[in-house]
Automatic annotation (TrEMBL), chain A:
InterPro entries: IBH1-like (IPR044660), IBH1_N (IPR059002). This is IBH1-like N-terminal domain-containing protein. PANTHER family: TRANSCRIPTION FACTOR IBH1, TRANSCRIPTION FACTOR IBH1-LIKE 1. Residues 18-88 form the IBH1-like N-terminal domain. It comes from Trapa incisa. The keyword Transmembrane does not apply. It comes from the Eukaryota.
From TrEMBL, chain B:
The keyword Ribonucleoprotein does not apply. Keywords: DNA-binding, Nucleus, Transcription, Transcription regulation. It is found in: Nucleus. This is BHLH domain-containing protein. It holds the Pfam family HLH. InterPro entries: bHLH_dom, bHLH_ZIP_TF, HLH_DNA-bd_sf. The lineage of its organism: Eukaryota, Viridiplantae, Streptophyta, Embryophyta, Tracheophyta. Gene3D superfamilies: Helix-loop-helix DNA-binding domain. Residues 178-286 are annotated as: Disordered. The keyword Amino-acid biosynthesis does not apply. One of its GO terms (cellular component) is nucleus. Residues 298-348 form the BHLH domain. It comes from Trapa incisa.
Amino acid sequence: MTPPARLNASASSPCRLRTRFVLRFLKTLVKIKRSTPPPPSPSLSLTSSPEKIGRHSQRIKLAAYSSMARAVGQRRAWSRALMLKLKLSDKRKNRYRWLAARKMKQQKTLRRGCGRILATKRNRSEKGSPSRSCSGVDELRRLVPGGEAMDLGVLLEETAHFVRCLETQVRVMSIIADCFP
Amino acid sequence: MEGNIGIPVAMEVDPSGQGSLSSCFFDPRWDNSISMEQIDPFDSTRSSIVSSPVASSLGAGEGDGGMIKELIGRLGVISSGSSGHVSPQPFLGHMSTNNSTNASSFTTPLNSPPKLSLSTMGHRIRGSFPPLSEDCLVPFATDPGFAERAARFSSLGSRDFAVGLDGKNARVSSSIVEGGDSWEGSSLSEQVHGGETGNVKKTQHVDVSAKKRKLVQRGKLDAVTPKGSEVSGGNNHTSTKKIKSCQAAEKEGSGKKPDEREAMAAREEKMQKHGKDSHSKQQEPPKDYIHVRARRGQATDSHSLAERVRREKISQRMKALQDLVPGCNKITGKALMLDEIINYVQSLQRQVEFLSMKLSTLNPRMDINMEAFLRKDIFQSRESILPTDSSPAHVFPYGLLPSHGTIAAISPVQLPENLLDAATTPIHRSPTIHFPHIEGFSTVPSQVLGVWEDDLQTVVQMGIAPNLQPISFHLGAGSTEPNHGQMKVES
């Protein structure tokens, strides 16, 4: 369902972005909660094993990132790259192994193609690459999804938007976490 | 053709140049004759013509005619200082053939032929002829902007004289406008007083780069200093690497009016005058074009310009990032800034991870207080939360909630109601939490957020502890509610 917060379709403002993110994230959280087997004793969360907790938190983290990426949509390069990455990784974890295996092959090809494209893009954008500031830019490229293929100028722009979205995410999640005792 | 010849001839023969020059100048045939085709025969000569010092080349007689030619020639050809006795033919030839590209740029310079009177005429006519079409020619005399144009093209050299020339031309042109015939006189007068200008004229390196559109232009215009003489000498050398054309060095005539000069300077900005223009007095900011301008002393080739653009873009983005990342105001330098940004991004990602862990362990414990809060919070929430039409239908039918507080009226099918009921607890529990939402978000979104959170809580509770249904008593639906709620939520 489209989040109700889509007040208007203009460019994402922080308010609308947050709303979209919140809605999506909550939906996903609900899903996760439902899918998570309820602990034997509702009041005790400690019964879950650390691994379960770890996996659970990992799922929630992925849900947060994916909902954020979807909230941003196709407008930003980093969100596109992130969605693609999540989709590929998600496919990899497909339940049907054989299907997953087949898909993996396709994905590998796709990824290789993407990688090649990314690599060529990177080569083309060599001048923006860390020739000047060696490790800093490299590190930034690793942090920002899809940053390997970006020129430095584009990378910085995407970083700015990415930082804003991350801040939104943190704020929303903290509020949600605070809501519940 | 005869017109061409006639004119130059007139100029040549006329020792003083003024009288005949004026006549020739305004010779109606001049325009026509100056057409490209007529000039063709001069092409050969044109190529050989090199800019030569204006002063030296042109004699007094040729002064006027030479000036005109000079101006014309300046447009595109670098005058290396060849003798000033450039026959009008080669001059014309140059003009015609020299560059059609320069034509546009040269039109203006042609407008102020009087400038050329200074003596530069003699030397060589550059290919500015092509621009010297009739339309050019006519305006040539009367276009006060000639000086400016000339200045524009003369950006190459460090010639300050370019500016000076401009001024002179402007003056001359104005004089021409006034009295046609008198232009030579005026030019001559200028020539006289603008001795240096004359010299300067000789080599006007029209900025070839003008074609480039991205000329680095600098305030070489300032070089307008009236020292035309030395300028002329140095012109050739100072011109930019692209120097192939003569520039209307005269621009910088000493006597030119300050305003003209400035106008010229303004135009010249566009032109690239990379030479260290000693004469440059003022740096005019680029005006008309949306070019990248190379600053003084900087490289002017396209690569460095593009590189400069890129660098500026990157620095802009870095500044924007500086505003975004807290505590980066004092940091200067890209490397440090980048490190700071990286640290901040990593910290944000760690925060997300921590919060996700917190959320994963937190939810199961939220249903305990629901009942207690539900009742009272319902009323509170109803007041604080407005029904949002934009909200999904399944979520917030606030309107359905009985304002009087009897939740029983809510149809069990409507999850939102359930949620709302359940939501009251969290709302009540942390009403302040929602309000911050409201501040940060628009009214509706905040409400939505609040509702969603409640919804989430409710759903979570339902999912985790189906047995615990704080709202069951409200709806009377019992265990069926959660399913409804969940399904609703799912949708």
